[in-house]
Specification:
Chain lengths: ~160, ~750
């Protein structure tokens, strides 16, 4: 069946079963690469996107729940030529090794900074707790989120 | 990505056609050799000529022609080829830095082709922290020789002495007018054998090497670009999922193949013996069909796993053969104090965040093309060709990045599954990604190990006796043969894994780092009790046996220092066999503030040192832990690493890899163990196999690098794994007065040790 999803500010008519998790629609129907399949269980956060103003596990959230909601992915933050502040901060801190978990980290961090622009180190750690990184890039990820917070505050 | 962008018509053979002007000019510098077989597996067939060919630097020795590594188009575009793969370790960036430095070019203007059986040199696996030693060295030397050829060609054209010319930014300068690289090459390729010696740029003149350069792959990864094999979407692509058996020895009795075949979107159900898979138009349709197929499947299971309650005994009972790793052939004398201990390490996972994935397509030309995040495209091609009964020339493996692997994870298995499914739907690309429980339950784990140490001190507090034994499988069960691919074992005509064989060599496997070469010891005796059987699937996990061996040995050294009544750092310095080892020990201690340590309740400090593989990077680590006596929880507070990786190519790359190594090893050491019953693996997700989360991230990790200009590159990526584990154990010992011997150091174990220690 057809359902309309608002992703990154645009309405998209999607022909998919209503039980399809958002992640599969983002990746396959809308051809957006950023959100990743990690576990399908809500345990790792690689699939994290923002719905309205909250981070959610897109691997668990069926599209039937998302009509009329505003969905945002890393693609909404900027482009390689014009990276947004959070993307710029991750590049400046070289906050990736394999990078597979990073888009999920970024969307969780973006949601945090939107509701708490002056998030402390401890608040950043708490916010990122649902997201796993296996390469051990954690120190840089924390630094990148703080750098982005400063950049956004100064902007 | 270059890997994805390379047109299929661009073959290495075509690149290798040509020759001409540069070959002739190079012949003035030295003899050129004939063309080898560019598609041969390494090592290449021996040259027919009688004199032994000279040893060439790095992987030039096995891929001897310059155009295996560097190509210059008529428009001046330079393409660099490497047989290594980007695994998230930053190798693409570092390779580009090596090429750019020696060719006097902006690294961001170079094109790079990585592991691809049709385009790249065969460098075996991207493993063992060997990429810079193998490929970085080859690319750097090839680039330097190409630069000198360009200068020689320019000198010939200008009729001047080459020493009056130099290369800069794509041109040879110093003559009456600049000559562009492209014009000097004039469309010809560099099909000429490299020389043993290169005129390398001195470290003091570096413009690109030795300096941080932003990773070339990161901007794409943080903006949702096409970065991973998971992101590939080929025209008409179908989605495949496997249905794995419930346990290793299970055989398929029945499954509703016909019923699942009629589900929406399902294109085909593949059954071959006990191998089950489903191919569908949509990915979610494939997942749903997989679940239905799995529910319908009936299996005959058989218990085959060791008793998890007595794993060390089970491993020891499997030992098949003893190998001597080191033997001073001297007897210990003057021993006045001894320390003896047993240590254990459970099976541990790679635990890639992205389950393994591959895309395969059987083309109309009969060629099976497989996009894979394998660590070895050539060995994987060999295994897949054998699996499919195809000629290797009809299989092409192209590396495309996956999630970090840290060794032999499910990558090759996914490639095989994609190829098996693509064969069932000729012409159609099939993308296969494992589910989380499939990656967790079926990846080849880092093997369980048991070690025993007995050492002694003389009256002066020097180590005079060193006896070390380890029980371990080989840590290498990678493809090359089809039996290494998990699905191959379940086909109607199955392939069996190769028999493991004991091999003692300088790189080490289960015995990696077991020879205590870092210390001056008058007596040593080191034995590997080699385990041949593999009751649990296992292969290469980052650092192989070095993780458990360094943990065991450096825990023991810590106790020997205590027995000697000496400071941990001073004790190690007194025994250090290599001044470069002593230098990193001093650096880590100084940066940590070892000599100013103020003990406080619940806190402890730990130190450890090892030179990875005894011939790669030197790593020393000093760290502080906090132990909660009530819960038994251990927290890493801060860590300082001193590292010597030889000549530095990208200092931030060394830091990133080393920070990551510390955190990953901390996760292994504090939390991780594969769980199982007598039949099934039971750690099948992140709840049953917990790893590090942000709440436990330390306050700081600082990595200080000792520069060694002019020295060879020393592999970096795995150097921190062993020392971090030992330093954690040593710090817990310092904090609570009790030593832990059995990995991992989970809270319940710490509490039990506290109770037992009282």
């Amino acid at each position: 069946m057809s359902i309309t999803l608002n992703v990154n500010g645009e309405d998209h008519s999607v022909d998919a079963d209503i039980d399809t998790p958002l992640l599969y629609v983002l990746r396959n129907d809308l051809k957006l690469n950023a959100a990743k399949f990690g576990c399908g269980l809500g345990q790792c956060g690689a699939c994290t996107v923002i719905v309205d103003d909250r981070p959610i596990f897109s691997c668990l959230t069926p599209i039937s729940l998302l009509q009329g909601r505003k969905i945002r992915t890393v693609e909404s933050l900027g482009t390689p030529d014009k990276p947004g502040p959070l993307q710029r901060a991750f590049i400046d801190e070289q906050a990736a090794q394999c990078g597979y978990c990073i888009p999920g980290m970024m969307m969780r961090a973006q949601a945090l900074l939107e509701r708490n622009p002056h998030a402390s180190d401890a608040e950043i750690r708490t916010a990122l707790e649902p997201n796993l990184c296996r390469c051990g890039t954690h120190m840089r990820i924390i630094r990148a989120v703080k750098r982005a917070a400063n950049a956004m505050a100064g902007a | 990505m270059e890997e994805f962008g390379a047109p299929s018509s661009l073959t290495r053979r075509r690149l290798l056609q040509g020759g001409g002007a540069l070959v002739m000019s190079f012949s003035l510098l030295g003899p050129a050799r004939g063309q080898g077989n560019p598609d041969a597996a390494a090592p290449p067939p021996a040259a027919p000529a009688a004199p032994k060919p000279p040893t060439l630097p790095g992987s030039l020795n096995t891929n001897r022609n310059l155009d295996s590594w560097i190509r210059i188009d008529a428009d001046g575009q330079v393409t660099v080829f490497t047989g290594k793969a980007e695994l998230g370790q930053g190798v693409k960036t570092a390779i580009l830095q090596c090429a750019a430095e020696e060719l006097a070019l902006d690294p961001l203007k170079l094109k790079l082709v990585t592991a691809d059986t049709q385009l790249s040199p065969n460098e075996g696996y991207t493993a063992g922290s060997m990429s810079m030693q193998d490929s970085g060295t080859a690319v750097r030397n090839a680039a330097a020789q190409v630069r000198e050829l360009l200068i020689a060609q320019a000198a010939k054209q200008l009729n001047v002495d080459p020493s009056t010319l130099h290369a800069e930014n794509g041109q040879v300068l110093g003559g009456p007018s600049p000559l562009a690289y492209g014009a000097l090459v004039a469309g010809q390729n560099l099909h000429v054998e490299a020389q043993p010696q290169s005129k390398l740029t001195p470290s003091a003149s570096f413009k690109v090497m030795g300096k941080p350069l932003g990773r070339v792959d990161i901007p794409t990864k943080v903006t949702g670009g096409l970065a991973y094999v998971q992101d590939l979407r080929l025209d008409g692509m179908l989605h495949g999922r496997v249905v794995r058996p419930p346990s290793y020895k299970a055989t398929l009795v029945d499954a509703d193949v016909d019923g699942v075949g009629k589900l929406p979107g399902v294109v085909k159900v593949v059954r071959d013996g006990s191998y089950l898979a489903v191919i569908a138009e949509g990915e979610w349709q494939a997942v749903k069909a997989m679940r239905t197929l799995a529910r319908s499947a009936k299996w005959q299971e058989e218990p085959s796993l060791p008793d998890p309650a007595h794993l060390p005994d089970a491993l020891k009972s499997l030992a098949a053969q003893d190998g001597t790793v080191a033997d001073s052939k001297t007897a210990a004398t003057g021993v006045v104090k001894t320390f003896e201990a047993w240590y254990t390490r459970p099976y541990q996972m790679h635990g890639s965040i992205g389950p393994s994935c591959a895309v395969a397509q059987l083309g109309a030309d009969g060629v099976m093309t497989v996009y894979t995040h394998t660590q070895g495209v050539y060995p994987d091609r060999q295994a897949i060709a054998q699996l499919l009964g195809m000629d290797q020339s009809k299989v092409r493996c192209i590396h495309a990045e996956g999630a970090g692997c840290y060794g032999h994870n499910g990558a090759d298995d996914a490639a095989a599954d994609a190829a098996l499914m693509a064969r069932a739907v000729p012409g159609k690309p099939v993308r296969v990604q494992f589910m989380r429980e499939q990656e967790h339950a079926w990846e080849p784990y880092g093997p369980g190990m048991v070690t025993h140490f007995k050492g002694g001190l003389d009256a002066n507090g020097r180590i005079v006796a060193w006896d070390y034994e380890l029980w371990s499988n080989s840590h290498g069960a990678r493809p090359g043969s089809a039996g290494a691919l998990i699905s191959a074992r379940y086909l109607a005509k199955p392939f069996q894994p190769d028999e493991q064989k004991l091999s003692i060599n300088p790189n080490g496997s289960g015995d990696r780092n077991a020879d205590p070469l870092g210390y001056n010891l008058p007596q040593k005796h080191v034995i590997w009790h080699f385990i041949k059987d593999q009751p649990i699937r296992q292969s290469s996990l980052r650092a192989l046996g070095a993780y458990c061996n360094v943990f065991s040995m450096e825990s023991s050294v810590d106790e020997l220092a205590r027995l000697a009544g000496k400071d941990q750092v001073q004790f190690r310095l007194e025994h250090a066999a290599d001044p470069r080892g002593a230098d990193v020990i001093k650096l880590a201690a100084e940066k940590f503030g070892w000599s100013n340590w103020q003990p406080s309740a619940g806190h402890g400090r730990g130190f450890a040192f090892a030179r990875y593989k005894n011939h790669a990077c030197y790593v020393a680590i000093a760290l502080e832990v906090e132990v909660n006596r009530d819960s038994g929880a251990v927290r890493l507070v801060r860590a300082n690493v001193g590292i010597d990786s030889g000549e530095i190519v990208n200092p931030d790359g060394i830091r990133n890899q080393t920070e990551g190594g510390v955190l990953q090893s901390m996760s292994w050491t504090l939390y991780e163990a594969v769980t199982f019953d007598r039949t099934r693996i039971t750690s099948v997700d992140w709840q049953t196999y917990p790893i590090l989360r942000f709440g436990a991230v330390p306050d700081s990790i600082t990595v200080d690098i000792i520069p060694r200009p002019g020295q060879p590159f020393l592999g970096t990526g795995e150097g921190a794994q062993g020392p971090t584990a030992a330093a954690l154990g040593n710090a817990i010992r310092d904090a609570i007065g009790v030593r832990l011997y059995d990995l991992p150091f989970r809270p319940e174990k710490v509490k039990a040790a506290l109770l037992a220690g009282k």
